[in-house]
Amino acid sequence: MDSQLAPSARPSAIASAFRIRFGFREAYVADLDAIQGGPLQQGALVDIQRSGLDLWLDAGVRDARDVERLAGFRPARIILGLESLDHPNRLAEIARTADLERLVFSLDLRDGRAMTEGDGWPAEPLEIAAFAWSLGLRTMIVLDVAAVGVSGGLSTLPLCAAIRARHTDATLITGGGVRSAADLRNAAGSGVDRVLVASCLHEGSLTPEMLAAPLS
């Protein structure tokens, strides 16, 4: 996909465009190589940071040792993705040993079903969210990977509304399928605090002026 934001696909160019054109200060970055068990793309991540954006980094954390390694890289937030955690005990160990303020739990879904590996996780996404909240993880991403990049709207909003009703003090983030400012308004109406956006920025369907307008 060609981007309207920058003439180059280099991470630093895109990051600079996000900061300069939209005024963003943070970026959610999923290192797909690391998530799949490969090496961390350190060069690209450093370039993004040097462009002036703080990283919310998903790099396939599997245990507390991975968190320690990423902490040395100094991301603003470390994402704990459900798809990378093979047992609830892994998440519990991380929550006991790491700085909770820097941790974000990502409730990863595919077509509405939790992306769990191994046994032990609750079957229902809402119960997984409750487990993460019980560990002190107050910032949570709800992301359906099947919706990412297809501009089909936010399929996660009913689940987000249910999580918000149960955990009123959570910071709730969602994404995947955002098409326009109307989707952002719908997200706010479902109790979502922040929304991850990407494709619609590159395509130009969300402009700085639209993002500056009130969502109510």
Number of helices: 10
- Helicity level: 25-40%
Global outline: globular
Strand content: 15-25%
* Beginning-to-end CA distance, first to last residue: 31 Å
C-alpha-based Rg, rounded = 17 Å
CATH architecture label: Alpha-Beta Barrel
CATH topology: TIM Barrel
How would you sum up the major sheet?
A: 8 strands, mixed
Structural class: alpha/beta
Outline:
The protein is α/β, with parallel strands linked by helices. The protein contains ten helices and eight strands.
Set down the secondary structure blueprint.
Layout lengths: L10 H12 L3 E5 L1 H4 L6 H9 L3 E5 L5 H8 L5 E5 L6 H10 L5 E8 L2 E2 L10 H10 L4 E6 L12 H10 L4 E5 L5 H9 L4 E3 L2 H5 L4 H5 L4
Parallel strand pairs: 1-2, 2-3, 3-4, 4-6, 6-7, 7-8
Antiparallel strand pairs: 4-5
Please give a structural write-up.
The chain is an alpha/beta fold and 216 residues long. The protein has one domain (11-212): Aldolase class I (TIM Barrel). It contains ten helices and eight strands. The protein has helices at residues 11-22, 32-35, 42-50, 64-71, 88-97, 125-134, 157-166, 181-189, 199-203, 208-212; strands at 26-30, 54-58, 77-81, 103-110, 113-114, 139-144, 171-175, 194-196. Strands 1, 2, 3, 4, 5, 6, 7 and 8 form an eight-stranded mixed β-sheet that branches. A hairpin with a 2-residue loop joins β4 and β5. α1 (11-22) runs parallel beside α3 and α6 packs parallel to α7. The protein is globular.
